[in-house]
Amino acid sequence: MESYETILQRMIGTYESRTMTKLSDESDIMIRLRVLAGEIFKQQVNEDFILRQLFPATATGEYLDHHAEMRDLERRQATKASGYVLFYAQGDHTQPVVIPQGTIVAANGSSKWYSTDEEAVIPVGDESVLVPITAENAGAGYNTKGGSINIIVTPVAGVTRVYNGSVLNNGRDEEDDESLRARIIDSYKNIPNGTNDAYYKSLALSVEGVVTAGVVGRARGAGTVNVYVFGDGHRVSASTLSAVQELLNRERELNVDVLACHPEEIEVSLLLGITPEDGYSFDEVSERVQGIITEYIDSLGIGRDMLLRDLSELLCRTEGVENFSFVSSQSFDHRISSSQYASSGNIVIRRR
Fold first, then answer.
1. Taking the model in full, what pTM does it have?
2. What's the CA gap between 54 and 347, in Å, rounded?
3. pLDDT tens digits, 39-95
4. Which of 8, 103, 238, 296 has the most CB atoms at less than 10 Å from its CB?
5. Distance of alpha carbon 346 from alpha carbon 312, whole angstroms
6. Beta carbons within 10 angstroms of residue 349's beta carbon
7. What's the Cα-to-Cα distance from 122 to each of 98, 131, 191, 343, rounded to whole Å?
8. Closest CA to 104 of 143, 165, 154
């Protein structure tokens, strides 16, 4: 695509060569040529934009969503992080302590707020109660490590402290263009024909709650197929697995035994050292790195390998990280089959 200046100079050159006159910047013809060059450049920009939106390999935003719709796909929406916290009461309390639904707690040193999903009670004689919580907003930014939620925003009579013993890592950002584009292109590469793996995979992915799926033929002998299904960073519920099985039973090939299954979990543990950039604390950067690693591993789903190469690319773009290194004896690639999924295990981060 030509620039505005290139178009204008070409028009000026053509005019001057044909009229044998030199145009001045203030002339009426020069003003007209500038306006015309601007309109031609604008038309080129519009044509270039339309051309890019015509193909899934270059389309963006809502136009990429339209390509996804034609492949019976849709962009994955952002989800809220959720998990559990322990509310503690005074050891000598003589009345049950009620924690109302909607009680707000927060992570120390941040503006991340979470609210309780249901009312809970600490009975007399008990020290604590485990309560489910959900992040105030959707997005991976609300994922947090264990022990970081320790502020009670909504005061509760009789409650002395709050604590999350495990990480919250199931919050997800809205799927970006590159991830959606990869799924669209993959749908063209693996066209279901009623007899191949892609057919059973597409059936499983059509069930709400299933995000990734893997297919293994002859899993239990000749004439058998196992379809492994997984949710958004977690195993699907029993009802979702049952819905997949019912669909497979209706749509399977004749004389083929198809079974919907949970995949095998492959826990990934890593040990790495990081050097924070000037102006960043080690604790701040290590928490950010912990979240990125956990999100990457838990987003792989079924059948996608956990590669240190891909993880390194993410860490190179992480704010506050000057340098990093993996301890080779405890950090290595994990090859994941169509019947397995990777999950984040013990992620240890040390100062490099």
1. 0.56
2. 43
3. 999 999 999 999 999 999 999 999 999 999 998 888 888 889 898 999 999 878 889
4. 103
5. 18
6. 19
7. 7, 10, 55, 33
8. 154
